[in-house]
Amino acid sequence: MKIIKLYIIALSALLIGGCSESFLDSEPIVELTSANFYKNKKDAEMAIVGCYDGIQVLYSSGVAFPVLSEVLSDNTFGATGNGDNFSYQLFDEFDLQRSPSDVDVLNSNWEVYYKAIYRCNTLIEKMEQIDWEGDTAYMHSIESQARFMRAYAYFDMVRIWEKVPLVLVPTNENIPQANPDDIYKAIAEDLAFAAENGAETVEAGKINKWAAKALLARVYLFYTGLYGKADLAGVSKTDVLEGLEEVIASENYGLIDEFKNLWPAASSKMAESGIGLETTYAGKDNMETLFAIKYNITSDYNGNTDGNHWMVMMGLRTQNFIPYGKGWGACTVLPSLYEAYEAGDTRRDASIISIVGEGLEFDNADQREYTGYSNKKYTPLSAVFLDENGNEVVRDVAEGNGATNFMIGQFQDYVVIRYADVLLMAAELGSANAQTYFDEVRARAGLASKTATFQNIMNERRFEFAFEGIRYWDLLRQGVETAANTIAINTKVLNGGLEANKVISKQNIMDTRGFQIVPQTQISRSGGLLKQNDGWN
After folding, report:
1. CATH code of the domain occupying 4-307+317-525
2. What is the CB neighbour count within 10 angstroms for residue 463?
3. Exposed/middle/buried for 31, CB within 10 Å: 0-12, 13-18, 19+?
4. DSSP character at residue 309
5. Domain map (residue ranges) of the chain
6. Single pTM value for the model
């Protein structure tokens, strides 16, 4: 097995590929639009970097989509600190009465989505005025990347709120919420364009046609499943399966040998010297990554927002246990998930921290909804460092490598689409190689073959993608009632060390249809043009 030693002063294997602090903010881009920008290929390159930056900061404030997705699922409870407000319980229990003042809890999310979309819209609108110097392939690649990112933002939004304003040109007009069919049509058209015209080359951090084909399949499965449709705005089952088969046949991607090596915390331990970490982490942009949102440690409080600002929410509540770093204790894991893995499934211990099982002396006095389990895939790292006097101190790895603060300087990328997802989606869609694809995923986890039925594939997806922001949407696309029946629970947890009831009502999920509260600020700003979702009044 390859061992990479991560010395405290050089974590480059983990840091490579993040967006630099020179990435453009939306304001300079907008100022240049009407005067001297969008003229040549250099301007186009700067503009597409600005679009990536817009996507990078989507999850920098509010309740980030990857965290929200897990809170909503049957994988985790909302948790957080025992003295915190109840925002995460509002989501977890689909109940505004858990935190009645949180009518704007998703307002910052709404705003950053539309800022990112504005950047993409502006570049797409200006494509024809740019001098491409005859480089049609480059022109198509730039437009494909912008349209992919616009589709990505809208796919998040339409799943969170279902009905949102559909804005496909730069505008500040007051626009009503669109019918979901129209939003999905726009998403499908953008992704179909990117799948046809995107670059075929695989370049770290850049969107290509293979990522577009994979995301189009994910959108297709969610839309046709939830709404009971035969196709996605003219995109058929045959179309999306063909796209997935092309991704597989391209041989650009594959499964890495050991599941744990996909995740920094799962593949790292204290170095033999006691200083720093040793890891077998496969690194960013490994062969399994089709699309990831990139992060690095350069975030600060002066406008640079390149760090992973949400991962700290999912760390163990205020305590370091090398290699696990401290965080705010959201998303405690249900024991039922830990117990559901098959015997010998290597994904369980690579995905879940068993606090007792790993002998961690965790103090749960400040932990809400303590279950004894936490997520391992997206958790901060800690290690022993030498301070300026040569003394050994345990510190967050991001801070130890120069991050301004552990809360905003986490550097682990959010891997949106992995090759394993391509294999399982292709199996679900009825590929002639469905059983082979299904078995490949199971074999990597150390498991024997099992018949690739729909339900077995759904179960496999839960274990393969736990804590990656996928499970809830896999449930919801099977129907609101299926999601509600699966998520509803009445059990015991520990709040501040004291036993308490934890209830998630099926009726609440049915009443909201699984969608979230539209920010009251946005409704007010629209003069009432925007309407609140069912179940949140």
Report:
1. 1.25.40.390
2. 20
3. exposed
4. -
5. 4-307+317-525
6. 0.94
